[in-house]
Amino acid sequence: MANIIPFIGLRYNTNKIPNLASVVTPPYDIIDEAAQVRYYAEHPANVIRLELGLEFPNDDENNNRYTRAAEYMQRWIEEDILVYESKPALYFYQQEFNIQGNTVVRNGFICGLKVEAYDKGNILPHEETLSKPKEDRLRLLRATQANFSSIFGLYSDPEKTIDSALQAAISDTSPTSELVDEVGETHRLWVITDNETIRTVVEAIKDKKIFIADGHHRYETALEYAQEMEAKGLPGYDYVMITLVNLYDQGLIILPTHRVVKNLEGFDLEAFRVKLGSYFNVRPFGSADQLSAFLKAMEEQGEDQQVFGMYGQNGVLYILSLRPNVEITQALPNDKSEAWKRLDVAVLDNLVLDHMLGIGASQRKNQEYLAYTKDAQWAVQQVDKGLYQVAFFLNPTRVKEVVDVAQARDKMPQKATYFYPKLLTGLVINHLAKNISG
Fold first, then answer.
1. Do 150 and 216 fall within a single domain?
2. Residue 347 CB: number of other CB atoms within 10 A?
3. Which PANTHER family does the record cross-reference, listed alphabetically (predicted)?
4. Are residues 32 and 120 in the same domain?
């Protein structure tokens, strides 16, 4: 059973900041140092100061990025730059974007999700987490008692009961806020305070499992913080802000993450191609100028086979499909589920990169001998320039595959999922202390 609640959101006051695009950012974990500095310069009240503040040489326990975030938030509340909703709400969140020349719309809603241990089976992760990002997020949460960026979750509702209730609530109304971000994507937000709609959604979600798409570190941090506060005799901090999207939403997109390999001593493409033939049907497709058709053919063939692509310094694109009944279990971890073993990326990473090329899990994690990219054209160019020896192309992981792996209580391989587009940070803030006190 998943428990969700409406909450009193904290939002930018458009009377003071009419251009919301100047104060929002992508999620913290895809912001590099250059972007961080750019967002700082964009507006003095940009949410970057709350979510991912700059660090300075003289920072100490009493003055650091976390304490400054708390000070900024309090000051902006006092100055009415940030204002609280008048009552608890759900937030309907619509993103309109372009993918391969097509306009796509993804709908979801923002709410509070009651955090609980994964082993209860109601909240299902699909990624491993690292201790360092969790410590960073925990220090921010302790200092501010707020969620600035939303976790991204999925639920299964083929009848679209929840979508229908939300759409009915916003029909014939204009969004409360709307903006076009720096990459041209449109974000729309509606505030829903209608009690009947909220009741319908809260009840409908109770029999659903929630699959975490993005934000595993933030979820685990929220759980740890809730346990900390409970131990201090302060219950009620056990809800985290999440954006929930129906698995059956047509705008739910996962982009592939391709691999490019370099610095392999003695690598010979022709010998490697022959070696691949022991496990795969290796079919030459054409030259690099046929990349778009190649990716499309790869996707079509991948509907019912484990398939990926390859490009080497001979200028030829290849489609690799796993041979029927070929034995590859020796190259795959014994402790993984059947759902995991059926993933294209599991076969590529373990059989090809590890077993055949010697690029092990720790080296892949640290990006030794390889790099990851979502841009297939860039991968081809790097090989053509001689900067990389070979490129491997993957089909997008299907949403069903992510769900199957999560339901098997397994974790996806590294760089297997990139849900697109990312959720904006700064549209709504969940100030936990306010929602407890009312």
1. yes
2. 24
3. DUF1015 DOMAIN-CONTAINING PROTEIN, LMO2823 PROTEIN
4. yes
Rounded to an integer, what distance in angstroms lies between the CA atom of residue 125 and that of residue 108? 19
State the burial class of residue 232 (Cβ atoms within 10 Å of its Cβ: 0-12, 13-18, 19+): exposed
Please tell me the distance from the alpha carbon of residue 184 to that of residue 202, in angstroms, as a whole number: 33
Q: 291-301 vs 376-384: helix axis angle to the nearest 10?
A: 120
What average pLDDT does the structure give for the chain?
95
At 133, the pLDDT band (50, 70, 90 cuts) reads confident
Rounded Cα distance, 225 and 391, in Å: 42
Domain housing 167: 4-253+420-437
**CATH (domain of 274):** 3.30.1760
Residue type, 217: H
Q: Are residues 244 and 389 in the same domain?
A: no
Residue 402 lies in a domain: no
End-to-end CA distance of the chain: 25
Neighbouring-strand partners of residue 307: 321
The Cα–Cα gap between 105 and 209 comes to 24
Residues 389 and 206: their CA atoms lie apart, in Å, by: 51
Across residues 358-372, what is the average pLDDT?
87
Q: How many helices (H) and strands (E) does the chain have?
A: 15, 21
Of 74, 234, 215, 217, the residue nearest 143 (C-alpha): 74
Backbone angles phi, psi at 262, to 5 degrees: -145, 170
Could you give phi then psi for residue 83, rounded to 5 degrees? -130, 145
* Mean pLDDT confidence for 116-129: 92
Token pair of 412 as six digits: 């996806």
- Quick: pLDDT tens for 304-352: 899 999 999 999 999 999 998 888 877 888 899 999 999 999 999 999 9
Residue 127 CA to residue 29 CA, distance in Å, equals 14
- Tell me whether residue 407 is in a domain: no
Residue 400 three-state SS: helix
Peptide bond into 284 cis (omega under 30): no
Q: By the 8 A CB rule, do 8 and 89 touch?
A: yes
The verdict on residue 414 lying in a domain is no
How many domains does the chain contain in total?
2
- The 10s digit of each residue's pLDDT in 201-217 is 999 999 999 999 999 99
Q: How far is CA 389 from the centre of its chain?
A: 29
